């Protein structure tokens, strides 16, 4: 049993956690065994267990360096593990790409960071000072006596990339929801460019997007951006015909566009939209193949070479065609980011990285060996789900993630930081621990599993600098203190959500509560738009769809009235405006947003849905087919929405600048 307990620890299988009620929960032995089984380990085979324990613990002391070595750029120390009998030996470090060849004549004077006894031999971990190196990843070779080891040196900044300390205002949007000027039924990058220019004119500094991940061409109704086909690839449906070079002098395309289908003004019909747009894409690709200049073909070839890792994960018949669509999507996303910077935005676009991928998509299938078996990501029991939540997203195996020096994770982060000025990490706690859901004795079970936090955090900080991209970690819910502290120390923005920030009596916390290095929002995509929330339309919808009975509906309206009173109390405390339950919803929203604009949070984000005074939600958590999630469109072009709210936005900017 001791050997199995050791393997639980070394493999990241959690032992305990604190429930939302404050209860201290220790995971059952059978639960932990099942979690380990999901990692492909036979928990009944003592030989396998002992071999793994040795490899993950004692065996690491037999190598001079691990496969990856993290070095802080501001304090360049390399941790080297040696047999103490070699202390009088010299040590040579070579980093060919940087033309570094460094020799330490004697190891004896180096600081000892730790030690380990094995078979009567004492091994020491030494702090070897090394030359300064640029932030990034550098392959190295170390030699001590007759021992050699290869390692990839990760030169890590103290903090992630950041901009100056000014308070800034931004806009959050669902890109697909923008009214499409081309009449193709879904918001695209051309519509985003127009929104960016209108937002920048009103002194906003960023636009926070929904995840732009690749969805399912042949199952277009699977519209959730948080359960994607692949997180390393872009959704071609966002490609704008007007921004594509291959749309020029394209007779086949012109004929097709002359007969485009009529689209719904409220919800996206993904089947119709996808079918037509992929016909459009076929015309664009044919034009490229037949008439593109050599220069453009070389540009495409360079794109394919640069993105070969992510493109290789596509499970498609015609890889060149699929790669062409990725190229066009990247070109247009870059156009949008450049438009943001040219318009004076300090950050520009902020991308959103989902916590996982679909279990039948190309990301999962192409990287299958990195995932656990029959384990999915979810959440422990909470007030909204007493039995916990299973999000249906396959769980990555923490031990397998290190393959090829964490190539998968590094490529994923790089792909999502490309062509944008910021990246929001959905459920950032995933870099430390995730709740796994699995079957145990034919029943739903689950526990926390821990991930290589130091390495994953290092990747975020390195890539943020290489891509000049700020990082926001969505840290809602129960997040371990060490994660919050590490994110804060690494200058990664936290993500505050007004609706959920309350004291022990249920009152909303003062605006000053929101930390300076945070992104503050009133609500997100899982919460109804403000007007819908204020009039209780979200409750009415749930009743209409049979999600609530009459008694539950009355209870929720009663609870909502209490929440509204608490909100009015907050507004009165912060701004001395005394409103009532009869006050118009947008008047209340203006007062609330103005109160929060004074918060210390450096980034304050308002939703375009609220400026549009929407009442229909983007998404109702816990529903799939019942409500048309991820489909609702805005009522008018984004530029018109922003223009109509110019005085309100100017007031927010004025408050932010005080």
From TrEMBL:
Q: Which UniProt keywords are given for this protein, alphabetically ordered? A: Carbohydrate metabolism, Glycosyltransferase, Transferase
Per its record, the protein catalyses: Transfers a segment of a (1->4)-alpha-D-glucan to a new position in an acceptor, which may be glucose or a (1->4)-alpha-D-glucan
| Transmembrane domains' residue ranges | none
What domain of life does the native source organism fall in?
A: Bacteria
Single GO term (MF): 4-alpha-glucanotransferase activity
Query: Which top EC class is named for this enzyme in its record?
Result: transferase
Q: Which family does it belong to?
A: Belongs to the disproportionating enzyme family.
Give the protein name, as stated in the record.
4-alpha-glucanotransferase
């Amino acid at each position: 049993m001791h050997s199995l307990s050791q393997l639980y620890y070394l493999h990241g299988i959690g032992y305990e956690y604190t429930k939302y009620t404050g209860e201290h929960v220790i995971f059952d032995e059978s639960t932990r065994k099942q979690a380990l089984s999901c990692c492909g380990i036979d928990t009944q085979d003592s030989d396998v267990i002992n071999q793994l324990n040795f490899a993950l613990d004692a065996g690491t002391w037999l190598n001079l360096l691990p496969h990856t070595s993290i070095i802080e750029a501001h304090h360049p120390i390399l941790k080297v593990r040696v047999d103490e009998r070699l202390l009088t030996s010299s040590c040579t470090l070579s980093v060919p790409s940087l033309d570094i060849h460094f020799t330490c004549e004697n190891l004896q004077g180096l600081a000892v960071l730790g030690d380990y006894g094995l078979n009567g031999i004492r091994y020491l971990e030494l702090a070897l000072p090394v030359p300064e190196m640029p932030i990034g990843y550098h392959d190295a070779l170390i030699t001590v006596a007759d021992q050699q080891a290869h390692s990839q040196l990760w030169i890590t900044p103290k903090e992630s990339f950041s901009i100056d300390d000014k308070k800034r205002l931004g806009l959050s949007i669902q890109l697909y929801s923008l009214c499409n000027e081309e009449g193709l039924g879904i918001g695209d990058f051309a519509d985003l460019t127009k929104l960016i220019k209108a937002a920048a004119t009103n002194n906003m500094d960023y636009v926070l997007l929904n995840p732009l991940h690749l969805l399912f061409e042949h199952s277009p109704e699977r519209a959730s951006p948080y359960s994607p086909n692949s997180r390393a690839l872009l959704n071609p449906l966002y490609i704008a015909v007007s921004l594509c070079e291959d749309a020029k002098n394209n007779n086949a395309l012109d004929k097709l566009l002359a007969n485009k289908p009529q689209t719904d003004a409220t919800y996206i019909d993904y089947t119709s939209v996808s079918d037509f747009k992929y016909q459009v894409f076929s015309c664009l690709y044919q034009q490229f193949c037949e008439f593109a200049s050599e220069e453009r073909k070389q540009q495409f070839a360079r794109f394919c070479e640069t993105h070969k890792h992510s493109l290789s994960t596509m499970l498609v018949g015609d890889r060149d065609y699929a790669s062409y669509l990725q190229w066009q999507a990247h070109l247009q996303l870059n156009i949008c980011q450049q438009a943001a910077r040219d318009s004076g935005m300090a950050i520009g676009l902020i991308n959103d990285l989902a916590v996982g991928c679909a279990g039948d998509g190309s990301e999962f299938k192409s990287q299958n060996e990195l995932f656990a078996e029959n384990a999915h990501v979810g959440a422990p029991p909470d007030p909204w789900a007493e039995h916990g939540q299973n999000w249906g997203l396959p769980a990555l195996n923490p031990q397998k993630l290190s393959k090829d020096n964490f190539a998968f994770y590094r490529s994923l982060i790089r792909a999502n930081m490309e062509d944008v000025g910021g990246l929001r990490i959905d459920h950032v706690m995933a870099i430390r621990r995730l709740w796994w859901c699995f079957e145990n004795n034919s029943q739903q079970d689950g526990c926390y599993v821990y991930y290589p936090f130091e390495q994953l955090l290092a990747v975020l900080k390195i890539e943020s600098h290489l891509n000049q991209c700020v990082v926001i970690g969505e840290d809602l819910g129960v997040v371990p203190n060490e994660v919050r502290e590490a994110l804060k120390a690494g200058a990664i923005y936290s993500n505050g959500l007004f609706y959920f920030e309350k004291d022990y009596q249920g009152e909303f916390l003062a605006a000053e509560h929101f930390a300076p290095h945070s992104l503050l929002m009133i609500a997100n995509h899982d919460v109804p738009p403000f007007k819908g929330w204020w009039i209780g339309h979200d409750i009415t919808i749930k009743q209409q769809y049979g999600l609530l009975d009459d008694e539950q509906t009355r209870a929720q309206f009663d609870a909502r009235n209490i929440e509204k009173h608490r909100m009015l109390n907050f507004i009165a405390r912060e701004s001395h405006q005394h409103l009532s339950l009869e006050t118009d919803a947008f008047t209340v929203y203006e007062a609330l947003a103005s109160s929060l604009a004074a918060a210390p949070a450096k980034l304050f984000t308002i939703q375009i849905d609220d400026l549009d005074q929407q009442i229909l939600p983007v998404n109702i958590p816990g529903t799939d087919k019942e409500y048309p999630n991820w489909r609702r469109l805005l009522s008018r072009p984004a530029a018109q929405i922003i223009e109509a709210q110019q005085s309100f936005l100017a007031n927010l900017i004025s408050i932010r600048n005080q």
